[in-house]
Specification:
By secondary structure, the protein is an alpha+beta fold. The chain is built from nine helices and 18 strands. The chain folds into two domains: 174 residues, 3-Layer(aba) Sandwich (Rossmann fold), CATH 3.40.50.1950; 132 residues, Lipocalin (Beta Barrel), CATH 2.40.128.120. It is elongated, with a radius of gyration of 21 Å.
Length: 318
Amino acid sequence: MATILLAVTGSIAAYKAADLASKLSQAGHDVHVVMSEAACQLVGPSTFLNVTGNPVFTNLWDAESQTRHIRLTDAAQLAVLAPATANSIAKLATGLADDVVSTTLLALGCPLLVCPAMNVRMWRNPVVQRNLATVRALGHHVMEPGAGHLACGHVGPGRLAEPPEIAAEIEKLLGHVSARVSAGDAFERLLGPWQLAGILGGMPVQQTVLAEPILGGTFVRLHCLPGEGFAYEAIVTLGRASPEGDHSLHLVESVDTKAASSQGVGHAVDADTFEFALTKRDARYVATLSWIKAEEGWDVSVGPEGEEAFAVLQLRRS
């Protein structure tokens, strides 16, 4: 069984987190809980202590707590943020670490499942959706909220997913933890610094790209840095979407402060070529990554299916 870190923040749905912790413990998992100050106003830490059998971490300021959050992240095989408020999602997206939950999550070395819970208008707010796009681009998993009557009296999406649904998703993710980027894997060849050159939307581009493993090697993140005279920046996250061999790709790109995101699932055409079906708003595209052995680099193309690519790029070593 797995060691699971459960982070609980200040939503009325925090009571469901206690039920989730109980179900995970009954399934044999070693569950450790961290709670924000607001969460403690809604559900007592003793509730989680009793259902998990482990001490509950609620602040950073006692002598033991100053390093305990690091020890928790060292041991965790999977982390779950449930309920994830709009505030906690914003902190996760921006790297803010000002309390026990945000500090602990920033130190994670394992996959993270984010389970939002909030008012329907908050959920639909473009700022929240932008933050969620960033969270996904960072390689974290986001579980869609349920829809229905909310505690505030409104009706719509925003309800925390039910504990059995979250528990099932956790078991699914735990099954994927062993499917990591490793030496010999084709994605291993993506790691390191690159120079990106080619044509993007009819414009010549030349930029630096930094690629690193994240979440314990489960994903690779490529950061395309803005070039001189070309205010384009992008973060691409690649990883396995299933043990069967499907791969996921998530792209967040920004031009002159205007941001957009694309996501999709693909597969290995052969040992050196990957093809992804991407969705951006209502449009669909095909992205292809091909390893060019003779040049020890990658060729990348993106365009509408069956049409000429609008992005033809080469990644070569710096």
